[in-house]
Specification:
Two copies of one chain form a homodimer. By secondary structure, chain A is of the alpha/beta class. Helix content of chain A is about 40%, strand content about 25%. In chain A, helix 3 crosses helix 4 and helix 6 runs parallel beside helix 8. Chains A and B meet through helix 4 and strand 5 of A and helix 4 and strand 5 of B.
């Protein structure tokens, strides 16, 4: 049976009615499935009220201890548990996880050159605890991941949700066929950024080179697609990028951009 | 194999060095084990900063929506995940849970007479998802419960940690021998409240009646012991009350008060 790993971002999480509609569609998807959720604005809002200012070192955003506590409670508690409760209400047997739970996502604290990003974790696909994920899936549970990992030395770490989805997908591809779906605020990769109907249905690595050259694909979409191709190289069947409103059609290949 | 269900309260959670020492002892306990943690002062402290005032109706503390969000993030996120990360660092394969995760603790919202307590859940032992708890225990995982349940309609609920420990103990007693251990700030039930060396080693139901009559046991200790006897009636092997500092000795019956 195929495993669908679906990443949903902050723009949906911040909108209660959109989130509920999304979770309703997610709850009835057949087969094995995993949800990975991002952060959302609520963490910054709560942070502001608590007087936690975003911290920067040399112009780079870092996760200091106060920010780590903030994201641990908001991502791992508020957002994750509300999603789990909503999925349970929709008849989906969700179980919320951070990377610390069952040490499902061990990570190492990121230090790049001379920049210490603080409590930020990089997870590697060969460290993902696929045994625990299999155990949960085979017993009818639906893992819901918050964007948090741990360092194995007693500290939680802040980790990008896109990366978590990708590393789980790569790791699980060794166990079963995996489809990785990124839900965001566009209908897919667009030929014309201003025209939502200009979705490119399929992109191969060759297409990608050409589209980059012609500057049809640019900016933040480039690393997104590079990561998608990296996932496919590691055995992920396909990566699909599209709008959260179209989740059902994305999963069956009737919407969004397929990266193959 | 015997299951030890250990409840630890806020006084330990609020003290990082005490918490770490406690978790170190917990991590090396042999056999099946479950940790249930309470809230701690940190929720009120964060609540104060967020401008969340404790809410009362007719003099009764209630959990309004804002308070529910607060405890969901602090209990289910901050406290629970930090405990899990610390246990993982100590080599204990902890997995953090609220009652919503895998619907392990379905609850009903409490309404008593004309008082609506807000988002407060009462969990019943015959509703506890023992299948999931068994699955986790049999696979070497150590469940760590935060004091949260859910109503099955999409909402989290605030639930007393003592009650959660007790209801899980009663439910699991049908599956395996269960020992329920309440860690608090006293060495056990004391003959003289001012003398920590006056611990009563064993209390039977008959002893309890006599001690109540003589007013040696009074106040908050009465419902605690009534609950303990209720648990034993439902098949829990024994309930032990003692100091968190003595966890190792409590488990082996060398400290605290045994209720049998």
């Amino acid at each position: 049976m195929e495993l669908n790993i679906i990443k949903v971002g902050g723009n949906i999480i911040d909108d209660e009615s959109k989130l509920k509609a999304f979770l309703k569609v997610f709850s009835v998807l057949e087969g094995y499935k995993i949800l990975v959720h991002g952060g959302g604005k609520v963490a910054s809002e709560i942070g502001l009220k608590l007087g936690i200012e975003p911290a920067y070192v040399n112009g780079r955003r870092i996760t200091d201890k106060t920010t780590l506590d903030l994201v641990t409670m908001v991502y791992g508690g508020l957002i994750n548990k509300n999603i789990v409760a909503l999925l349970q209400a929709a008849g989906c047997n969700a179980i919320g996880l951070t990377g610390a739970d069952g040490s499902v996502l061990p990570a190492s604290r990121r230090t790049v050159m001379d920049i210490d990003y603080g409590y930020v974790g990089d997870v590697q696909s060969d460290k993902v605890n696929t045994g625990l994920i299999k155990l949960l899936l085979y017993n009818g549970l639906v893992p819901v991941f918050s964007p948090l990992t741990h360092d194995g030395n007693g500290s939680m770490l802040n980790t990008n949700a896109d990366t978590i989805a990708q590393e789980i997908a790569k790791a699980m591809a060794a166990v079963m066929p995996v489809q990785l779906i990124y839900c965001f605020e566009k209908r897919g990769v667009l030929i014309d950024a201003a025209d939502e109907s200009s979705v490119i249905n399929r992109i191969s690595e060759k297409d990608f080179s050409e589209l980059k050259e012609k500057e049809i694909i640019s900016g933040g979409m480039i690393p997104k697609l590079e990561n998608a191709f990296a996932a496919i190289e590691k055995g992920v069947s396909r990566v699909i990028i599209g709008h959260a409103d179209e989740l059902g059609a994305l999963v069956t290949g009737n919407a969004g951009t397929w990266i193959v």
